[in-house]
C-alpha cells in the first residue's frame, strides 16, 4: 500500500480495482495525429505507454479523501458481477476491491460521501453490489453525489430526449444497476452548477466528456488537488489537448474543457488527479511556449 497524498491537512488514498494495457493511442483517441505522437511519445515513461506494443497503460481506481473528519470516495470503478454486454472487459468482474479498500483502513460502512466525477460504466460500478439477487448500495451510510445533467442524460427513461449518444453501447446497463438503486432510496444529492459540498471541497461543471462531467477541487492550507475524471484520460492529452477519447459525448466542448482544466491546474499549481492514469497516478502540469507538459510522471 503506497502512502497517501497530502494536500494540506487532507489525505488522499488510491484504491486500485484494475490495471493493465488498454487500447492503442490510435484507437482510443479521436483526433490522433501521427506527427504529434512521434514528437511527444518518448517523453512519456513506459509505465504509462508501452511503446513496444504501442499500447496505453491505464488503471481503474478510486480515491478516498480524508478531509475535515469525513471520508469521501471519488469514483467507484466497474464493480463486481455487472452485466456489461457493450464492454465485456468490465462485465462479471470478481475483484477484491472492497478488501483493498478495507486494507487501506476504510470499511464500506465508514464512507460518508461518494462522488462520481461523471456517470460512465467505469465510474459508478461500486455504487452498488449484488445481494440476494438485488443491487443494493455498497456504502450504506454514504450520501452519494451525482450531477443533474448526467443523471438526466443517462436515464433510459429520457432516451427520446437524448437519442444519439456516442457511448450508448458501452454504457448499456449501468444506470439501472448502479445509479437508479441509489436514486430510488433517496441516497443521492443531485447537483447542478458549481457546488461547495463543504469547506475544502468544491465541484465545478466541466462538460464535454459527458454533459455532467465535473472537476472536484480539494483545498487545504493553500494546497490544492483537482480530480479531473476523464477530461484527461492519459498524459498524451496534456501534450495534445485537442485529442479527445472516442468516449467524449460532445467533442467540441470536450476540447474546450480540457484546455480550461489544464490552464487551471497549471495556474493554481495543483496536483492533477485523473481517473485512469497508470504510473504514478497523479501529475502536475506546467505551461510551455506552445501548450502544456505533464510534470512528475
Ligand atoms: Zn473512465
From TrEMBL:
One of its GO terms (molecular function) is metal ion binding. PANTHER family: QUORUM-QUENCHING LACTONASE YTNP-RELATED, QUORUM-QUENCHING LACTONASE YTNP-RELATED-RELATED. Gene3D superfamilies: Ribonuclease Z/Hydroxyacylglutathione hydrolase-like. InterPro entries: MBL_superfamily_lactonases, Metallo-B-lactamas, RibonucZ/Hydroxyglut_hydro. It comes from Panacagrimonas perspica. This is Glyoxylase-like metal-dependent hydrolase (Beta-lactamase superfamily II). Coiled coil: none annotated. CDD domains: metallo-hydrolase-like_MBL-fold. Belongs to the metallo-beta-lactamase superfamily. The keyword Zinc applies. Pfam families: Lactamase_B. Keywords: Hydrolase, Metal-binding, Zinc.
